[in-house]
Amino acid sequence: MTTMPLTQVHPHGYITDKDKYLQRLRRIEGQARGISRMVDEEKYCIDILTQISALTSALQAVGLGLLDDHLKHCVLDAVRMDGPDAEVKIKEASAAIARLVRS
């Protein structure tokens, strides 16, 4: 008997908030376009940096939300099933946390 990988058995943890994430990402896209326009229009450096800071914060909020969903859903499900996926999911989560902390 073959088993499907956990990611194929269960939907991703963020699926219940997918619309919320997409809305936030569309807003972030708009912010990025706005920053590009500011550079093109040669706006004041500090104003551009302020917008970059806001964009960075918005991206970090999305990343932390996705990480929280991943821990609560994907990692927790893998640990409950107590198979080889559990260790993989924990390592993936640790690596993702490390990347977020470095950014």
UniProtKB/TrEMBL annotation:
CDD domains: CsoR-like_DUF156. One of its GO terms (molecular function) is DNA binding. It comes from the Bacteria. InterPro entries: Metal_Tscrpt_repr, Metal_Tscrpt_repr_sf. The keyword DNA-binding applies. One of its GO terms (biological process) is negative regulation of DNA-templated transcription. Keywords: Copper, DNA-binding. It holds the Pfam family Trns_repr_metal. Belongs to the CsoR family. This is DNA-binding transcriptional regulator, FrmR family.
